[in-house]
Design brief:
With 100 residues, this protein is mostly helical. The protein has one domain. Helix content is 91%, strand content 0%. The protein has helices spanning 2-53, 61-99. Helix 1 (2-53) packs antiparallel against helix 2 (61-99). The radius of gyration is 23 Å and the shape is rod-shaped. 3% of the residues are buried. Residues 5-16 have low confidence and may be disordered.
Length: 100
């Protein structure tokens, strides 16, 4: 009888510690992706503002290519932050539902 109780409590402790590690990994990943997406969006946004504010910068073909790349990268950063936020939200809910 004692062996069965020890085994069940050991399993419960392992599940609790793995949930804790998952939560810590998610928070570290969330901070990383928030910083990455924020800096990417800020940098590309400023690049677009500079290129679009000056008429002389918009006339050269290489600058048009850079504007195109900035728009594409800016949109990727925005999509990264939006989709990752939704994914992390679902994973956090799943972790807490497994606890209960």
């Amino acid at each position: 009888m004692d062996t069965m109780n020890i085994t069940v409590s050991t399993i419960d402790n392992n599940i609790s510690s793995s949930n804790m590690e998952d939560s810590e990994n998610l928070s570290i990943q969330s901070i990383f992706y928030l910083i990455l997406g924020g800096l990417g969006g800020l940098g590309n946004g400023l690049t677009l503002i500079v290129f679009l504010s000056s008429q002389s910068l918009r006339n050269k073909q290489i600058n048009i290519f850079l504007i195109n790349q900035s728009v594409a990268d800016f949109l990727c950063c925005v999509v990264l932050m939006i989709t990752y936020k939704d994914t992390v939200g679902r994973e956090i809910i799943t972790i807490y539902l497994k606890k209960g």
